[in-house]
Amino acid sequence: MKNLALFDFDHVIYNGQSFLDIVKYEIELERIIPAVEEEILTLLSKYKSEDLSYNQTLSGMLEVFCKSLKGIKYSDLLYDSINYFNSNPDSFFSYFNLILPDLKKTYDVYLITANTKFIAQAVVKKYKLAGFISSRYEVKNNIFTGNIKNSLAGDKQVVSSLVLKYGKKNSIAIGDSENDIGMLQQVESPICLNPTKNLLQYALDKNWKVINDTNALSELNTLLKSIK
């Protein structure tokens, strides 16, 4: 069996906030109304002013988008996400594209994201990853109900099942925010890429490796060579 590699998405694989970019794209397609983006930007503004925590902001964003999709087909959102990511290849960090072929030789790579299922599915399809764990919106007969089925905002400890399956030895995880701590705690090599202030402080206290998108390729190559 191969080793286990876990990657967060936004600011780790994707250079930006894919959640907001997909919201903007759906507004352009006139599937949802512009007020959805306005609500999300208000939440982000409150986070920046420290009126909301990271997890409160993320939970709020998931809920706003979820309600806006009520009555829309899941298959349409999946198609849109696939199309958007394929049309915007420069939005992905180059280190990930470069390291992935070598990484896949000895690792099964999973996407672990608080983003919702159709976004995760689109990324897994694009990169042919082993799988994903994500937040999920309730869907019945291919139609969004407007309810959240489960959320990874504040809880990525769900990766424990994957760690149990593959074993902790040689396992790696890469995250950028405090929402990733539950995932990072469970692997042998936790890595923080462009971490938020709160994650950086936690990482320094735990002596976790801290990297950025500029040196990520060399750092990961060094790690892979040390494991062989």
Give a concise summary:
This protein has ten helices and seven strands. With 228 residues, the chain is of the alpha/beta class. 38% of the residues are buried.
Our estimate of the beta-strand percent is 15-25%
Note the main sheet: 7 strands, mixed
**Within the largest sheet, what's the order of strands?**
4-3-2-1-5-6-7
Cα radius of gyration in angstroms: 17 Å
Count of DSSP strands: 7
Number of helices: 10
- Poorly predicted runs are none
Q: What is the subunit arrangement here?
A: single chain
Q: Can you characterise this structure?
A:
The chain is of the alpha/beta class and 228 residues long. The protein has a single domain, classed as 3-Layer(aba) Sandwich (Rossmann fold), CATH 3.40.50. 49% of the residues lie in helices and 20% in strands. The protein contains ten helices and seven strands. The chain has helices spanning 18-28, 35-48, 54-68, 74-87, 94-106, 117-127, 160-166, 181-184, 197-206, 216-227, and strands at residues 3-7, 107-116, 131-140, 143-150, 172-175, 189-193, 209-211. It has a seven-stranded mixed sheet. The two termini are 14 Å apart. The mean pLDDT is 95.
